[in-house]
Structures are given as C-alpha cells and as structure tokens.
Amino acid sequence: MLADMVRNILVIVIITSFMELLLPDGTIKPFVRFVIGLFVIIAVLTQAAAVFDKSGSLPVTLWDTAVSGDAAASGMAKEAIKEAMIEERGQLLNGKIMDRAYQEVSSKMDGQISALVLLMPEVREVETETLADEKHNVHTVNLWVSLENDITGRDIQENREKSENVPVLPDKANRADTEETANKIKRIISGFYGFQDVKVNITIREE
Amino acid sequence: MEIGQIVGLALVTTVMILIIRQQKPVMAVVVSVVFSVIVLTMMIDKLDMVIQVMGDLNQKAEVNYFFFTTLLKILGIAYLGEFVVVICQDAGEQAVAKKVEFAVKIIIAVLALPIMVAILESLMQLLPG
Questions:
Q1: I need a labelling partner for B63 at 20 to 30 A (CA). Which of A78, A100, A165, A207 fits?
Q2: What is the number of domains present in chain B?
Q3: Looking at the 3D structure of chain A, how many domains does it have?
Q4: pLDDT at position A71 over 50
C-alpha cells in the first residue's frame, strides 16, 4: 500500500514537472505554477485521506473520479471510460447516501416499534432491532421484551380465585401469559406496519 | 521533418516582415499572425498526443480526474492567452495585451478556485481545532 502511494505521488510529480516545462514564458507563468502546486497537494492529500479518513468524506476524495481497474481492463473507448468513471463514482456516492439514509430510517423505526410495544401495559422494557437486505427491505424484526413483574403474579392470583377447586401451576400460567403477550406484540407490529413476509422474533427476558 | 518546415517558414516570414514593415506595417502584423496560426495548427496534433499520454499516466496513478482536466484547461488558457498577448505586443498595442493578461489571470483564478476550496476544506477536516 505504501509502495503504491509513493509510486502514485512520484508519477504525479513527474507529470506536473513536465507540464511546467510546457508552460509558455510570460507573466501568466507564476499563476499556472501555483495551480500546478495545488495539483501536487491534491495528489498527496488524496493518498493521505485514504489512510486518515476512512469515511471518504473529505472534499478531495468526493471529487475523485479515478477510473477503476475493471473499466480500464475491459478495453473501453476513452469517452466510454470517462462516462463509466463518472457513473461509477455517482453510484458510489448514491450508495453512501442511501446507506446513511437507511441507517437513519432504521434507527427511527426501531424507536417507533419500541414506543408502540411499550404502550402495552404488560411491557416494562423493550429493545428493537430491524434487519434489512441489500435493497434495504426489512426482512426481520428482533425484539427483546421485559414484562411487568406484577402482571404474571396478578394473573396467577386471578386464575386461582376463578378456579378455586382447580389447582393452577404457577410456571404453566406464566408461560401461557408470556406466549400470549408475545403473540399480541407480533399482531400489533404486523398490523401497524403492514408486514407480510417480515419475520418478527420476540425474546422475553427473564428477570 | 517538421522542424525543417517550421525553421524554413520562420526564416522566410522574418525576411518578409522585415521588407513589408518598411512599406506597410499593418501587413507585417498580419503576416506574423498568419505564421503563428500555421505553427499552432502544425503543433496541435503533437500536443494532443502529449496530453493523451499524460492523461493515461494520470489514470494509472489514480489521481482525481476533475483536477487533472482543470489543470489541462488552465494550461490551454495560458497558451492561448500568451499567444494573443505576444501578437498584441508585436502590433504595438501594449494596453490591449495587458487587458488580455488580466482576463487570463482572472479565468485561471476562477478555474483554480474549486481546487483551492477542496484543499482547504480537506485540511480543515484533517486538522481540526
């Protein structure tokens, strides 16, 4: 990698030196030399950005339309390579923008689902994670739910009162309650967002 | 050999201008301009080859394409400007030559502005505080 960087900078310095030789003598020469100097700085900064700026948000790299190996290797015509370069960079930028937008939407959706589930009286705490495919279509929603402690206790008591003669096992009643709550959450989320093929996984956290 | 053609043409033109200037100074300037245009036309193909090679090298070095094209534009503007400035000076029109120089400098500054802004913004991001 370091060897590539040094090679690239060397090539640029040689190109710019050659350009300087081509310059006409006159009062305009210092101006053009200044711009050539800027070009060398750009070349060094582009290489430095590859090391120090992983996000690729530097203005220098955003303007970068260097051709990729694929386009050059396919033996395309010069104009076609130019177009391919611009298109390629456009797609890359578009991808970055879409990824950022999706992350924003995804975190908002997580918050929405959590808020929706928290409206249920049985739920004390909830954590949500939405998973999407490459085209940003949601395929799975994972929820980690903590239930209110007194709900299950109260239900068991009510069941005991209703069926005085029939013994109700606490564990069995508890399991039935949590399953019912989980199904209810699934129905609410699927109904609210109109999910058809989206998998909703609910994990009830044990206290 | 193109250099032979150019040298021959230059010698003939110089002698012609020396003779014509005595009788009709205006025509001497016209001959000078025609000679300049002929030399420029002869060299344009060669210049295109040089630029293509530099473009290919630039592509291999994976340098910013936008900045490279801007640099080439600036080089072209400098050449064209200098060409016109010299013609104006030959004709004794120093004031017009100065105006052309001024315009060329402004155009180069405008073209170089995005490069300067990009460098400054990048430096500010890399070195915060």
A1: A100
A2: 2
A3: 2
A4: no
